[in-house]
Design goal:
The protein has about 280 residues and is an alpha+beta fold. Helices cover about 25% and strands about 25% of the residues. Helix 7 crosses helix 8.
Length: about 280
């Protein structure tokens, strides 16, 4: 199969791109139907892998497999369409297409990224898949991670409002909803804010009342969404109803660890003033 048929950006339309409340776009029917069906039918190779995870029988837990595991274990995965899918979505060609789509906002928000890309994209150590050995050796690293959210025994969200890791430049999700899945929820919620947001824990929003839902990206088959990761890129996964079905998805990211990189810092509550307030 030609690799460009595997490209989940092939049906991107400029009119689907929004830069408020942060740069993102959605693509419905991202892949040709025959490609999508082949990917969905072959997802069983990952289910066998996920079934060994301690959380497989827990309620609404995220389990995923990274590109390094797939690409280094050719005997287990190379016969599957997923091997080529993973390989392509870690490629310079795919990264460059994302760079071009987000070009105007990259120039405004992360101009240094454009400079690095233009000057070093042909270098040997410009891009590779994410791993402990690669993260600090390459200018950028990527990952394409097929995964699931396990069945739910009670209505719940796998994660509330948050931003992704500040080392992440682009984030994306590709949905492979099962036709027999009659559950509700599990959608991606994009937020705008009405006041300054404070973060706590990993990168969770503490004052969630400052948020208002801007758009809901439906969890449905052959649907994908990509965004430029900024401290404004607040999103969550909506509550999912009780179901024995798994939620099938693939997570795609491009990150930069080199030189202890972070694209932004998070506003957090000042603990000193909090302690002082509590004493008073």
């Amino acid at each position: 199969m030609k690799l460009n048929k595997l490209n989940i950006l092939q049906n991107f339309k400029v009119e689907s791109y929004l830069n408020y409340p942060f740069p993102f776009f959605e693509i419905e029917n991202a892949l040709p139907q025959d490609v999508y069906v082949a990917l969905k039918n072959d997802y069983s190779i990952f289910n066998r892998y996920f079934s060994q995870n301690k959380n497989f029988n827990s309620s609404n837990k995220r389990i995923q497999i990274n590109s390094e595991t797939i690409l280094k274990n050719e005997n287990d995965f190379k016969k599957s369409i997923w091997y080529d899918f993973i390989k392509y979505h870690n490629s310079l060609e795919f990264f460059e297409q994302l760079m071009n789509i987000f070009d105007n906002d990259l120039i405004k928000i992360y101009p240094s990224v454009k400079k690095i890309f233009n000057e070093k994209k042909n270098d040997k150590f410009f891009l590779s898949y994410r791993s402990a050995n690669n993260n600090n050796s390459y200018e950028f690293v990527s990952d394409c991670q097929p995964g699931i959210n396990t069945a739910t025994i009670e209505k719940s969200s796998v994660r509330g409002p948050h931003v992704d890791n500040p080392v992440e430049l682009f984030g994306g999700l590709f949905y492979l909803r099962d036709k027999n899945d009659k559950s509700f929820g599990g959608d991606l919620i994009i937020y705008e804010k009405s006041e300054k947001v404070i973060f706590h824990k990993k990168a969770e929003v503490q004052n969630v009342k400052a948020l208002k839902q801007f758009k809901k990206i439906r969890y449905k088959e052959n649907n994908c969404v990509f965004f430029l990761n900024t401290k404004e890129s607040i999103h969550s996964v909506s509550e999912r109803s009780i179901t024995s079905n798994q939620r099938y998805l693939t997570n795609l990211i491009f990150e930069r660890y080199k030189n202890s990189n972070s694209f932004f810092s998070l506003d957090r509550e000042k603990k000193f003033f909090k302690r002082l307030f509590n004493r008073i």
